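#struct-help
A.M.: can someone run this one for me? Single chain, 240 residues.
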Amino acid sequence: MKEALLILGHKRVHHAYELYNHSEQCDLWLAAWDAKTKGLSRTLDRRYWENILAGYTAVTDMPAVCFAEELIDAFPEAKVILVQRHEQKWTQSFKTEVIDTFFDNSSITALISFLDGKLMRPIHRLWSRLLASDDGFLKGTTRNQVSDNAINVYRNHNALVKAKTAPENLLLFHLNDGWEPLCAFLGAEVPDVPFPNANEGDAVKEVVAAFMKRNPDKRTIQRTMWDIPSLYYYETLCVV
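D.P.: on it. Structure tokens below:
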């Protein structure tokens, strides 16, 4: 969705990979999660989000999906695109690419975050809180807990977005629908280019390039890559 929105004229779209270029944002997202879990969501008003998202005209993916309710409340006029996925396929992919990857490599990524405190430490801290803590987005600390909870979190997220968004502001979108329904919903002209196919590998390369500028140790970089693909499978909500 990020690439599609860029093609349609959005200059900056917030996506999980933005954090690898702007790791200073991680503490702001963590503070927002603290407020949410402590029952202080009312403090996450429009001004708060405009501070975090200054310069962006759309948001998608993690960590924004964790704040669907707060973002919709803060921007009731926003167009919301809810990406639809086949539940069984999503669940299997999520387990393989996210849960197993995260827990199989937690020790390595913790070490990397220690070695690169400026970039990787705040990122690792954010993902650990959201993905593997009792009060995290997936409400579990172990592989089995997270695996068991994932499908219900996914369903509850979709139900919440549908309930909170005004019908005229909501598009239920399948990625193979192509440009026409998306452009009609956004009031944009259909571009004369193919609809972008999500290529996780290319996105990972961009993130690794950012890490390479800070740490040229190729062995460390190769290990870092295993901490990155987990973000792709959260791309279910887009607010523009």
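A.M.: thanks! Confidence is low (pLDDT under 50) at residues 218-235.
D.P.: also worth noting: The two ends are 11 Å apart (CA to CA).
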